[in-house]
Amino acid sequence: MPAKEYQITTMVDFGTKVLGTQNATLNQISDFKEDISNSRTFSFLHEIEMLLEHGLIKGGDLNNAIVYVDKALSPETMEKLRIAFKKDNIAVKPNGILDNLTLHHPNEAARHKLLDVLGDLALVGTRIRGKVIANKPGHYINTQFAKKLSKLIKIERRNNVPKIDLNQTPLMDVNQIMDMLPHRQPFLLIDKVFELSDSHVIAQKNVTMNEEFFKGHFPGAPVMPGVLIVEAMAQTGGILVLNTVPDPENYLTFS
Predict the structure, then answer these.
(1) What is the C-alpha to C-alpha distance for residues 253 and 238, in angstroms, rounded to an integer?
(2) What does R_g of the chain's alpha carbons equal in angstroms?
(3) Does domain 174-250 have CATH number 3.30.1380.10?
(4) Tens digit of pLDDT for each residue in 122-157?
(5) Which among 17, 70, 91, 196 would be 20 to 30 A from 227, CA to CA?
(6) What is the CATH number of domain 7-158?
(7) CA-CA distances (angstroms) from residue 127 to 27, 76, 114, 122, 124?
């Protein structure tokens, strides 16, 4: 939903009395380190019993993971847990957490789920400005949402490609461009500017068959070198930057 900055709210409910329902909210990314980053992963005892039976819990540590005990434990199971976690003694606290573990936050489970959402949505590959409300999130649904969001962003970007009439009178011709940029032929790589604001610029480079680089790149199959395309974009960016100062002729732009 719309928001001025990136915000996330998570809501978890596993249908168990030992954990109950929890919510967590991150209102600004600057609070992440203090409020979210130390929220540990968690699991329920029934989820690790199979691993325990097969001796697969090798790197588990009750200091970096929370185990919620959602069933009665036999002395035999308690002994297996003690050995697996290399503890002299092991117990279930009144709040249903295995061993003498103090939560970093009362809603640490929901905060860890928020951490997961934040990490998974980083796969979108662009900065998000809005509020994400995640009800019962998990890595699979998080990444599916990230893929869908990424696809929608790509479609939106394609639809927002500017449409310019290249036959219209340009905002700046090559002489006006040279008044602003220090570049000169043969390395002045933009000829016209059609749009210019504080946040965007649209320019044009006229590419003709008599360009010097076509003589060797490649004879018979002319291709404009990619580095020169990048340089043309950099010069266009120079127009955008120099437009913010009152005396652009006194500045040099380097790319």
Answers:
(1) 6
(2) 30
(3) no
(4) 999 999 999 999 999 999 999 999 999 999 999 988
(5) 196
(6) 3.30.1700.10
(7) 15, 51, 17, 8, 8
**C-alpha closest to that of 90 among 100, 104, 76:** 100
Give SS3 for 248: helix
pLDDT, mean of residues 78-102: 84
Per the residue annotation, which of 104, 105, 183, 217 is the catalytic one? 217
- Does the active-site annotation cover 183? no
- The identity of residue 127, as a single letter, is R
Q: Is 104 a catalytic residue?
A: no
- The single residue of 112, 139, 183, 200 carrying the catalytic annotation is 139
Provide the sign of the torsion angle of the four alpha carbons 214, 220, 224, 225, taken in this order.
negative
Q: What is the rounded CA–CA span in Å between residue 106 and residue 8?
A: 18
All structural domains of the chain with their residue ranges = 7-158, 174-250
Distances (CA, A) of 97 to 63, 66, 173, 200: 12, 7, 72, 55
Q: Where are the alpha helices (DSSP H) in the chain?
A: 32-35, 45-53, 75-84, 108-121, 139-159, 174-180, 226-242
Q: What are phi and psi of 112, to 5 degrees?
A: -65, -40
What Å distances lie between residue 191 and 12, 18, 188, 240, 248, CA to CA?
A: 58, 69, 8, 15, 18
pLDDT in tens, 20-62: 999 999 999 999 999 999 999 999 988 888 887 777 776 667 7
